[in-house]
Amino acid sequence: MQVQAQADQLNEALARSGQQDTGTAPGQDVIWLTGQSQASANSAPNLTAADATPAVQNAQPAGAQQASLTTPTVAEVPSQKIVDTTPLNPSLQAPDRSDAMAGLRDAVIRDDPSAMHRAIAAVGLSLVDRQKRLDPSLTADLSMLQRRAVDRYMELTHELARLVELDQTLDRDTAEQALRQAYGDEPIDIARVELCRSVRGYGVYEPFESTSYIAGRENAMIVYVEVERFTTLSSADAPLTAGVTSGGSGGGASGGFRVELEQEVVLYNQSDGLAIWREKPVKIEDVSRNRRRDFFVVQLIKLPANLPTGKYVLKVTVKDELAPNKGAFAESAKSIQIVADQSVVSGR
Question: What does the alpha-carbon distance between residue 244 and residue 191 come to, in Å, rounded to a whole number?
Fold first, then answer.
């Protein structure tokens, strides 16, 4: 009982010390009670009252015991976003658009040995900024014809890009519109002239095997002419006039697209260039519901029987009556010969 009373006094003293939270001065002895400790698994045998030690020298401070009995609370510090305001190195900053394009252009064309390839590549890059023209240094090594070809290629690609941006379908008419825009109003052109026995359609004809004809008789032939870059105008009401069989088979069609040409055939003496015979000019008017892409003209002519033997030049002239440039025309010529010997002429 005496030991129990002593233990109760010690516990009371320790409790008062913890409430004051003043701790124990360094070096001051604290008595720890060991006789009332709980046993745990595999612990040593219980001590008796006689084994209790009233005091233990150099014991732990009271403050340490109090800390071991209390679970510390850690305050949570809210996270903060750290922003680095240090300026970037100018060499690491993204280049602006013009500098980026200049660098890309240099990278693409720098190692290309062909001046034409470099110019074509530059035209492709120019689609990014179509307001700027090509650097003259890129075409400095090209011939005049090559520079003109590059200019037209650039105009064509830019016009096609413009039409695509307008949501237009890239059908043939749209592509031809872009071509006309790039090439401008080029004059009419004659693609082919043939002297034929018969003609059944565009590209379907039977030419004479020889360009030699017999003197002393009338020589009849069909002049077959293919024309390109002719002017086509939209017409609300333009009935087909068939004075001469033309590339159209309008058959009285009204509305659609209209073409007006004039053709003249003249025979010149090859030796002195003098005109010795001519066919009266004929008008060709064609109206079609669809725009003509392949256009041809056929005209029956008869060379007079009184032509002397010799070499001649048969010249065909086609005028575009609807061209913006009034008086636009194209010419083409075929060399023929008038002979007296029938054996010279074959296939007749």
Answer: 19
